[in-house]
Amino acid sequence: MPVAETGREPQGLEPGQDPQQQRPERPAEHGARRVLREILSGSALLSVLAVVVSLVIGAILIAVTNPAVIQASGYFFARPGDTVSAVLNAVGGAYGSLFRGGLIDFSAVGFWAGIQPLLRSLGFATPLIAAGLGIAIGFRAGLFNIGGQGQILIGGAVAGWIGFSLPLPGPLHLIAALVGGLLGGALWAAIPGVLKARTGAHEVIVTIMLNYIAFYLLDYFLNTPVLQAPGSNTPVSAPTAPDAVLPQLFGSPVNLGFPLVVLLVLAAAYLLDRSSLGFKLRAVGENASAARTAGIDVKRMTIAAMVISGVFVGFAGAYQVLGQTTSGFSTAFDAGIGFNAITVALLGRSKPWGVFWAGLLFGVFQNGGYTMQAANAVDLNVVSVVQSLIVLFIAAPPLVRAIFRLPAPKGARA
Amino acid sequence: GTAPSATSSSGAASSGAAASSSYLPCIVSDQGGFDDRSFNQLGLEGVKAAASDLGSQFKSVQSATANDYASNIDNLVAQKCNIVVASGFLLVNAVKASAQKSTSTDFAMIDDNSIDLPNVKNVVFNTNEAAFLGGYAAAAYSKTGTVATWGGIAIPPVTIYMDGVAKGVAYYNKQKGKNVKLLGWNADSQKGTFVGNFNDQNKAKTFTTNFLNQGADVIIPVAGSLYQGAGAAIKSSGKTAVLEGVDADVYNTDTSGAKDLILVSILKNISTAAKDVVEQSAKEKTFDNKQYVGDLKNGGVGLSSFHDYESKLPSGLSADLDTIKAGIIDGSIDVSSKAAFTN
Amino acid sequence: MTTLETSTTGAVVGAAGPRRSWRVVWIYGVLTAIALVVLVGFARPGVARFGLATGSDFVQLPEVVLPGLATGIVVALVAIACTVAAVLLRRRDRHQPLWLPVVFAVALVVGLLTWATTGAGQSVPLPGLLGGSLALAVPLIFGALGGVISERVGVVNVAIEGQLLAGAFTGAVVASLTRSLIVGLVAAMVAGMLVSFVLAAFAIKYLVDQVIVGVVLNVLVLGLTNFLYTLVLVPASATLNSPPQFSPIAIPVLSAIPVLGPVLFRQTVIVYLMYLGVVAVTIGLFRTKWGLRLRAVGEHPQAADTVGISVGGTRFWNVSLAGAIAGLGGAYLTLASVPSFTRDVTSGAGFIALAAVIFGQWNPVKATLAALLFGFASNLQNVLGIVGSPVPPDFLLMLPYVVTIFAVAGLVGQVRGPAAAGRPYIKG
Amino acid sequence: MKLELRGITKRFGALTANDHIDLVVTPGEIHCLLGENGAGKSTLMNVLYGLYQADEGEILLDDEVQHFSGPGDAMRAGIGMVHQHFMLVPVFTVAENVMLGHESTKAGGRLDLDAARARVREISDRFGFDVDPDARIEDLPVGVQQRVEIIKALSRNAGVLVFDEPTAVLTPQETDELIGIMKQLRDSGTAIVFITHKLREVREVADRITVIRLGQVVGEAEPTASNAELASLMVGRAVELTVDKTPARPGADALVLDDVHVYDLNGVPVVDGVSLTVRAGEILAIAGVQGNGQTELTEAIFGLQPQVTGRIVLDGEELTGRTVRQVLDAGAGFVPEDRQHDGLVPEFTIAENLMLDRADGEPFVRLGALRLKDLAAFAQERLRRFDIRAQGIGTRVGRLSGGNQQKVVLARELSRELRLFVAAQPTRGLDVGSIEFVHEQIVATRDAGVPVIVVSTELDEVVALADRIAVMYRGRVVGVVPADTPRDVLGLMMAGEAPQAVAA
Ligand SMILES: Nc1ncnc2c1ncn2[C@@H]1O[C@H](COP(=O)(O)OP(=O)(O)OP(=O)(O)O)[C@@H](O)[C@H]1O
Ligand SMILES: Nc1ncnc2c1ncn2[C@@H]1O[C@H](COP(=O)(O)OP(=O)(O)OP(=O)(O)O)[C@@H](O)[C@H]1O
Ligand SMILES: [Mg+2]
Ligand SMILES: [Mg+2]
């Protein structure tokens, strides 16, 4: 017999067994629960540490530019203690204010007063979450929508125009303005979608260009009676009519926008995880040619993804003029949300609940930043530095592990 | 943890002088920031000057985006500021909202007069009056018979200058029977040249070069620090041309080496106004909401000294300017601008 | 670990390859028809005048005076000829040579300029128009060169804006402190490189999605420079923010060429470096060992790995090089154009450069042309505005952006970037 | 050059892909490595080539211990590899690919392309390859690309040459040529390691055979061993190697192609007037060398080609000009030839991939919402029925081996009510066990009365499955012949000879 058995039985795994020991996927798991699980799993520690590293770098910036620290460091070798305490004062004061202004004010009397800062932070988080969801949906469909700024401007302008010019009654006015905002964002996002589907024009270029075009278009209309407040000569629109303003909830600083954006998160989660449309969008995003072969209309999905993305971003625009700057808007009401939303989407890993928490974090930082600036004269740019560092560090767990000399997790790839 | 108390002296990148007054003046910028070499910077200077006169601390916060206005103002109020100076018309809505809530805080609203509240003092400037003089001076100084103005973005605090300049040039032509051309702004159609922002120095330089190529030898950039780009354009063109500054006396504030190009500056004395309002609020504790209008008459706007160019001016220009100034003050010369404040 | 599992900027999904086919021909046709209608049908009476000379020219050329209608007719004829050529080439399945669209575009631009300025009082100084276009394009070109190198080696570079800004800031500060332009220039390159280091380290070592890093770096650099500008530079601008300035150097003979000479050859060292850069990167990419390896790593990292080329190392150093080049673009802003740093002085140039990279199909020469087109459109709107144009300024300001969209949608269409751009390389 | 591997062990996390493997290959020997998918063959070769670092064991060349920290070291030591997936840069020319990594340069670092061209020509001439040094790789047929790979290895004077599944994408002729080349190399003293799943090739060319199963050497075999013996050694059980099928009972004409032309983007016809008829309950195999229009033809049927003329009719219903969706809805099932690129979304789970082509309506979608419970139940059933080896339906498809990936595609396509089934290269790269399964499924589909088209470059497969065989060459059908047509006739037809001429 020409075949020689070695007689050894292989000791490997059974053929059916997956060697990777991966966590079982539970696609049907509820969004919030999954987020909770993700936080509680090992990566939560790393995320916290990432925030810590970023805050430390921010603290260095604060300390080295603080006048008291600079003064004390002038005689560092005589009295090093002064420098140390000046640093602690500067950093502690700044971050104390950040916390007090963004999250909870323990010095305030009573629970309700204490959480006012957090509630205000929700207001800043709301548009970030909405726009972040829009960008994330684009990402999931393989599209990089840098056009948030333009979509916010157009969506907000439409919402604002409806909000101050149409004589609609009561809640209908708010609804119409909101819907107008969503449509405006969708329309502006549809342009790159259609151009990509029809001509293959790269959405990155087109969305960048459309940001500028939206800005100048808005500027033009703010200088014409279309948007300009009557009797005014400044390029600022008329104030939003009271019944088109998102109502405050229970006398708190939170307005209806926040519950609506939670609904948007649910809608995005449903869209991506549970709906046929979302499935097709994801398929196109992951492998367009396989999607095409499976009968999915890639071009239509490209347009759909951009339109949906624009709807979410448009909500952010509508929120800005119906909830944030309700007394008339200028060309700057996008407030950088279009670009921050990209960061939020990235930090949230393009998952709806991830975007939600990322937006919340950014909202807290933003709101706390104001107090930090007012109370401690710390420049607001520190906040954007810290925010961007957080995204970088969270994206690179090995780096954070290296910084804190944590062991690599078991089963990491060679 | 426990935060330092709100009014602690840790605030303000400030005078450093020991506080002898507990009065706290504060200022919030618009998106230009306090280093805009323009109205934010001037407002801050005014507040600083007032604080040092009063022997008090002060606080200043910058806004980076439109989202920041309301929160910045609210936080200043929370920091127990006695007066909040709001620098720029973009803040008007935030000021209005905050002033309604915080009736015990005084507000100074610069460059807008639409708020009518007891604790808000509007501070506006008839910049067109001074710009008229600037335009006249430019036309008179020009050797080529062409002068130019351009703006950052088309907003009233910018176009009011450009209107004034246009009127001043036209007045010169009428008076002297000349035909000096103004490029970059048409006061009738309200169309002209804008860079599109207040940051892009390279574009400012290029655009100025285009004006120089068209023969302009007096350039009036109305765009904060972008005058630096204009100065660089003149220097690298090798042509003999000059700049007019706006807002501050740029001859004094410039650090970019454009000083020797500054023919004259069209002043908008925001710092004086801000200082006065703060001190009024602080000293007398009797704050009135009567609108402050800075004009040629009260010195709120005006022309700076011609500094190095004093000796190179066409003869009679100084006298002409004085006459015109009187004419504007007594109303016999029309300087109206579509961007001007109406009451 | 990556959020964006899909290829984004770099690798454009192309079910079909370059699908230029008849579309380009159609565009020629449509544009020609428009030219015919506008330039001939709506010809305006009078003449357009173009100045050819700059003040300091050696030979003073006279003004060119073009009659509106006649020029319109000539331009229309040239456009028709180009269209016919395009049709014929397409019929014979021949590649469209680069000169064809260039001739076509030049003709249309001449037509447009003539039409728009016919009857205007002012003459249009051509050298000024072109020189301004170049000045606006320089930072874009540096940024685009950096982008091309980075993406060609397989790392999507969204951080061009940050690299430009870091270069501008550092160049200004270091040159102010040392009073040396060369040191400032080197410092700007180092700063751009540092931004790239972060991009490279996160993208290559930590396998973080390259787009994430790029986007975040832009925010980070903007925040940092704003912060330092306000707190450090402004209070001490005499020592920290008053750099010396590069002065233009006229290249003997070349700068005497009429019209183009002064535009191209009376420039600062940085611009000459840019010319060199475009040539060197082009030759380097396509003719040298460096370029071959670089492109191999960007197209098929595994293949490069299997022949012993270190993928990570190649990416790392070339991304750093890209950052250094972009840093030069930043230095142009603060050491050559206007000698001081102001906040956000790049104001979006990096994003336009990114667009130029894609628009230029990851080719250094084409990306340079794309940047020049953008600079030209920006400057054209200004010149038209000065000469007197009936269009509101806001719409003129939109012009370069609209032109870019039309160009990308109409002429370029689906482009294919380096196959592996955006994808981290994991061995095995 | 003599190669010796001693006790090579390579672990990926918990998995031991290579478990103390010993292997000796002497100069002038072709050593075949056999083993089913995932046995660890490629891993072993990647260790040898320096792409992976072994956890234990050592590599010896001519009895000297080597330390490779990367492929560069291995290449310098004289090891060349023709990879399973070609390691060629598609947009480079042949010469550029060959010189990559050891470029000769002129002054200033400029490439000396002439030297590279000369090197390519020299090696081409030596082995009778017909390779244009200036052709771009992406324009070349697969067979030629493989020659480029070989030239690449030889241009570095490799003393040990590894071929990892080189024949998976080749035609019989090309395979024969490759085997000829390997023999030529062997005779010139090269040590060759040859990995393949095709037992016929093994017996034809091997001097020695080593069988690997689950990361361990389970035995050695002589080239004279029978297919059945080799197969059972590989898989660890007896394998049915011939397709067990009853004669076809064809019904009415189902799919009719009438003068179908497909044009590429430059307007060049790639399918040039094809007319074919497939009857219900028969398998029409389309044979041919890769790149003769088979891909485009199948894609044309499914609406995946932009420019198609002629008529495609299924059961009297016109399919021409329909969208992919409409064709699928008409009851057509499709196994595309590149499963990773066109058949599957690697990041999706098995379950998600199983509903990929039914994302619009029943049974998995109602009112725009996914019905995840139904999908899960369906996926479980498919998993069991198609014996897909995975931890569960939530496993990402990208983590499956090729054979299991192919089963997912089959499981999806064969779960609808079909009126037409088209399978392109259905067993490419699969091991014998998987091939057996796939073939059974295809035959079962036919027996259910469905018209089936199988496109294959694999003559064994064509002969085993077909009821009739159509051979394509340069976009045309050279002829349609019975299943029992001799292999040499088919081979000649694949080279473009008309069947009459061949028969004559
Ligand atoms: N990079 C990797 N990471 C983790 N596991 C791997 C990796 N590469 C291979 N494996 C595992 O090693 C085992 C051996 O794989 P290998 O590719 O060597 O098989 P093979 O014998 O070449 O199979 P085939 O015949 O299909 O080519 C597989 O079970 C696979 O799970
Ligand atoms: N990055 C990876 N992580 C985990 N497992 C991997 C990875 N890459 C490959 N594998 C495993 O390696 C095995 C073989 O993968 P490979 O791509 O080599 O397929 P293959 O050997 O060609 O299979 P086939 O011969 O069936 O086509 C698969 O089982 C897969 O699970
Ligand atoms: Mg293998
Ligand atoms: Mg395999």
Q: What is the structure about, briefly put?
A:
With 414 residues, chain A is mostly helical. Chain A is built from 17 helices and one strand.
**Main sheet specs of chain D:** 6 strands, mixed
Number of strands of chain A: 1
Rounded mean pLDDT score of chain D: 87
By DSSP, the count of extended strands of chain D is 22
Question: What is the fold-level CATH name, i.e. the topology of chain A?
Answer: ABC transporter involved in vitamin B12 uptake, BtuC
In CATH terms, the superfamily of the largest domain in chain D is P-loop containing nucleotide triphosphate hydrolases
Helicity range of chain A = 55-70%
Keywords (chain A): Cell membrane, Membrane, Transmembrane, Transmembrane helix
GO molecular function (chain A): transmembrane transporter activity
InterPro entries (chain A): ABC_transp_permease
Organism (chain A): Amnibacterium setariae
Explain the overall architecture.
The complex is a heterotetramer of chains A (414), B (343), C (428) and D (504). Chain A is mainly alpha-helical and 414 residues long. Chain A has a single domain, classed as ABC transporter involved in vitamin B12 uptake, BtuC, CATH 1.10.3470. Chain A is built from 17 helices and 1 strand. The longest helix of chain A has 30 residues, at 170-199. In chain A, 61% of the residues are buried. In chain B, the strands form 3 sheets. Chain B has a 6-stranded parallel sheet with strand order 2-1-3-4-5-13, sandwiched between helices. Chain C is mainly alpha-helical and 428 residues long. Chain C has a domain at 129-365. Chain C contains 16 helices and 5 strands. The radius of gyration of chain C is 23 Å and the shape is globular. The model of chain C is unreliable at 1-20 (pLDDT under 50). Chain D has 504 residues and is an alpha/beta fold. Chain D has 2 domains: 3-235, Rossmann fold; 253-331 and 417-503, Rossmann fold. A 6-stranded mixed sheet of chain D has the order 6-7-8-3-9-10, sandwiched between helices. In chain D, helix 14 (402-413) runs parallel beside helix 15 (432-447). Chain D is globular, with a radius of gyration of 24 Å. Classes of the chains: A mainly alpha (414), B alpha/beta (343), C mainly alpha (428), D alpha/beta (504). Chains A and D meet through strand 1, helix 11 and helix 12 of A and strand 2, strand 10, helix 8, helix 10 and helix 11 of D. Strand 1 (4-5) of chain A pairs antiparallel with strand 10 of chain D, so a sheet runs across the interface. Chain A: It comes from Amnibacterium setariae. Chain A: This is ABC transporter permease. Chain A: Pfam families: BPD_transp_2.
